[in-house]
C-alpha cells in the first residue's frame, strides 16, 4: 500500500484531503504533518510515495520544505503537489521551478483533485 504524506497546519484541511482519497477509492495509508519541519522528519524516516503540501505553515513553510527535499537526490522522484490558497501566478511558477510536481489551489474541488491525482502514479 502506498504512503501519502499530507502536510498542512490545518487539521481540517488534512482531513478533507484524506477524505477525498477515500471518496475516490484510492487505497493508501496516511502520514500527517502540521508543518514542513515535521514533514521533513517523515520523509527522512520512512518511504513516502506522495506529498500533498500547503505553502503557509509555521516553523518551515511548504516552499522551504520543497527546496530542502529537492536538494537531496534520494528524494528527487517523490511527487510533491502543492495544495494551497496561494493563487498568484508567480507563486505557481516559483513552486513549479522549485520542483513541485503540480499545484492545486484551495478550495479544492473533487473534480480538480481527481484530475491531478490521475496524472501521477501512486
Task: Write up what this structure looks like.
This protein has helices at 11-23, 36-45, 62-70, 89-98, 110-118; strands at residues 2-7, 28-33, 50-53, 80-84, 102-105. It contains 5 helices and 5 strands. It starts with a strand and ends with a helix. α2 (36-45) runs parallel beside α3. A 5-stranded parallel β-sheet has the order 2-1-3-4-5, sandwiched between helices. With 122 residues, the chain is of the alpha/beta class. The protein has one domain (2-118): Response regulator (Rossmann fold, 3-Layer(aba) Sandwich). The mean pLDDT is 92.
Keywords:
122 residues, alpha/beta, Rossmann fold, five-stranded parallel sheet, 5 helices, 5 strands, globular
Entry summary:
This protein has 122 residues and is an alpha/beta fold. It has one domain: Response regulator (Rossmann fold, 3-Layer(aba) Sandwich), CATH 3.40.50.2300.
Helix-strand pattern = EHEHEHEHEH
The CATH architecture would be 3-Layer(aba) Sandwich
Helix content: 40-55%
Strand order of the largest sheet: 2-1-3-4-5
Class derived from helix and strand content: alpha/beta
Silhouette: globular
Task: Evaluate the radius of gyration.
Answer: 13 Å
Q: What count of helical segments does DSSP give?
A: 5
Taking all residues together, what is the mean pLDDT? 92
Measured distance between first and last alpha carbons: 9 Å
Contiguous runs where pLDDT drops below 50 for at least 5 residues: none
CATH class category name:
Alpha Beta
Beta content: 15-25%
Number of strands: 5
